[in-house]
Amino acid sequence: MAHPLGQAAIAPERGKRLDSWKEIATYLKRGVRTVQRWEREAGLPVHRLLTEKRGVIHAYTSEIDSWWQTRSSVLAPSDGNLDLWIRSGPGGDPNRLTSTPEHEFDAAFSPDSRRILYSVSSQKPAAMMEVEGAPPPGATSLFESDLSSPARLLAAHAGSGRYSPDGHWIALLRSTSASGEIEFGLLPAAGGGFTPIPLRTSADDVLQSCSAPVWSADSRWILLSARTRKTGRYNRWLVDVSARAALLTPATEEMMAAGFTAAPVLAGLAPQAWLSDGTVLTKGFDSGAIGIWAVGFDPRSRHIRGKPTRVPAPVTELRWFSIAGTKIVFDGGDLASPFPAYRRNSHGVHKI
Which of 83, 96, 264, 288 is 20–30 Å from 128 (CA)? Predict the structure, then answer.
């Protein structure tokens, strides 16, 4: 049998015996941590004998080949495109949602989980999109899918769409000119025109870069990390939804002064989630890795509450994370499915 990654499998029946994690990783052309995670989460066939000392394992190439044939479409898409996959929950089988010549990414569920927003682009996002940011809105289009019928184009030259928790609004970024200038604004989820909400310090200021919007639990406020021409750096902006107004806040400076050790560059301390208790979860960098930081924020005073604290991550190489309610989903490196889910409470982060 030919190896799915291009190498030759050896011997009939069970094939060649691989006697260490390193040999298995070399055969699959992946890192040791990745194949260990595949064994734990995706059923990679690895054998342990009760008579052997703890940690001694082996595998057979023919079994790995058979496993790969059923899992490779999930673990390593062959066409190089980014497609969307969906699964019903822990233990459910992943199903492909999109399969096009373009790249689909940055998916976000509606509050009732019946629809998703996602971006489409012919430009492939950076390998570390959570660091370098998604392709600019001018290179993407925002689509909406009800998970059963064909997706519809929601806004051309737009991206980073996020539903409000009450389901009434969609916050997004869109391109305003061929020169790449962008703007932030709202669309009614039920249909209607785009309402721009300027993020600028004066009438002649221009928004240059911005993180995806993050809604407060009551849908009254939106947080963004944005850089304008006049500020020249990333700052936290607060949007009052009812007033359709954006205000520059001192939150970034306060976080740095309170002990946040990560420099506000690239991702700009982008907020990721705003919990019902007022805690904002932020991605930042520490010792070269992406980390999760938590700090309270008061939208009425526009100031942080307390000192930023790092949330212990259960993976050693945190690449990205996503939050839905009280659940945090992590990826520890190379793409794999399913991803482990964790719950955060006052005692830390725990696997579900």
Answer: 96
Helix (H, G, I), strand (E, B) or coil at 291: strand
Parent domain of 64 = 17-75
User: In the chain, count of helices (H) and strands (E)?
Assistant: 5, 25
d(CA 140, CA 134) in angstroms, rounded, equals 9
**Whole-number Å distance between alpha carbons of 233 and 302:** 18
Domain-ending residue, one of 196, 227, 250: 196
Determine the pLDDT at residue 185: 97
Residue 328 has a pLDDT of: 54
| Closest CA relative to residue 268, chosen from 133, 108, 160 | 133
> Can you tell me the mean pLDDT for 321-348?
44
Confidence class of residue 72 from pLDDT cuts 50, 70 and 90?
low
Count CB neighbours of 97 within 10 A: 16
What is the spatial distance between Cα 190 and Cα 350, in angstroms, rounded to a whole number?
37
Structure tokens at 61: 């190439």
- Residue 286, beta-bridge partner list: 289
CB 78 within 8 A of CB 89: no
